[in-house]
Write a structure and sequence with these properties.
The protein is mostly helical and 334 residues long. The chain is built from 17 helices and no strands.
Length: 334
């Protein structure tokens, strides 16, 4: 064996010296959770109902708490300044533009199809009954909102078509809210955990994202399960979907495809309302956008990405994303 020592390449040196900054990671997570819990206090004390307009506004505001926590962590703890803040949070670069655009389109329509496919899968498995001809369930719910004897303004088929056409537009409006969550989870946390490897980073980010929802889940949000079971359902759903939009983040080098995909997922989450038959009570644990039928759909997509090596098996992400997702160091502050 030769006694000569080989000098590691600069890339190897960077990989060896790069570690997870756990103090920053924990500060970010605890701050994001604390801020969300504070905003949700009116819901917890009963001043505001979670189903009311004010309740939905509070939930919308809380979606910005991961961004607030990420900005504080990056600026106050890591000392990042100027334009490097945008890069550290995944807001930039958006070059090449065609890559971001294609991934955003894929995220938009893919995220719409997941809740839709989940509803049809649940029906195929006999969990729910659908009415794709008269849309009786949706018609019944609309009639309860009208004065007695008053007819719908147009046919139920036309109303359903209008609602479905609006989903892509609603996705873009929803993105104004999801940018808050994505800045924190996929913008800051995912690359901060990159030294652990791609899969551990995706898994931990997804679990953290799910746990952050705890205050509203314990109020019955999403699954009508205000207990540990509801928390587990939300965490598994966020883990599965987080891997998919984490893949968008990795390949885009920025958060914008993830932001749009997340907005689309939220916009399509109520698809089951239009197609469930009258008299068939929707089981959100099964047919909700983060229910177990959606887990199956997302699990298949994740398996395809893994088998086709679209998700790197270690932390050697592509050179395009590597520059964007590098952890801040003393050399890039200021």
């Amino acid at each position: 064996m030769s006694g000569t020592m080989q000098t590691p390449s600069p890339n190897q040196t960077n990989d060896i010296s790069r570690h997870v900054q756990w103090s920053s990671v924990l500060t970010f997570f605890l701050l994001a959770c604390a801020l969300a819990a504070i905003i949700d206090i009116p819901l917890w004390v009963g001043v505001v109902s979670i189903t009311s307009l004010h309740g939905k506004l509070l939930i919308g505001v809380s979606m910005y708490t991961p961004a607030a926590a990420a900005v504080f962590t990056v600026v106050a703890l890591q000392g990042v300044r100027g334009r490097k803040i945008a890069a550290t949070l995944g807001w930039s670069p958006v070059r090449p533009l065609h890559r971001t655009t294609l991934l955003a389109v894929a995220g938009l329509f893919g995220s719409i199809l997941i809740p839709v496919a989940a509803v049809f899968l649940a029906a195929l498995l006999g969990v729910t009954r659908l009415d794709l001809h008269n849309f009786s369930g949706y018609a019944s719910s609309l009639k309860t909102l009208l004065p007695a004897g008053k007819a719908l303004p147009m046919s139920i088929n036309a109303l359903v078509i209008m609602q479905l056409i609006q989903i892509p537009v609603a996705s873009l409006f929803n993105s104004l809210l999801t940018v808050g969550e994505e800045t924190g989870w996929r913008g800051f946390l995912l690359p901060a955990l990159k030294p652990l490897g791609t899969w551990p980073a995706l898994i931990i980010t997804g679990i953290a994202w799910g746990l952050w929802h705890t205050p509203v889940i314990l109020l019955g949000y999403n699954f009508n399960q205000p207990n540990l079971y509801g928390m587990a359902l939300m965490t598994i759903g966020c883990l599965a979907y987080g891997i998919l939009i984490g893949w968008l983040r990795i390949h885009a080098g920025n958060i914008w495809p993830s932001v749009i995909a997340h907005g689309a997922f939220n916009a399509a989450g109520g698809f089951y309302v239009f197609v469930v038959a009258a008299g068939s009570t929707p089981n959100l644990i099964a047919i909700g956008p983060l229910g177990w039928s959606a887990w199956i759909i997302m699990g298949i997509l994740i398996l395809v990405l893994a088998l086709t090596r679209q998700i790197p098996m270690n932390n050697a992400w592509s050179s395009h994303t590597d520059q964007t997702l590098a952890l801040p160091s003393a050399s890039n502050k200021g």
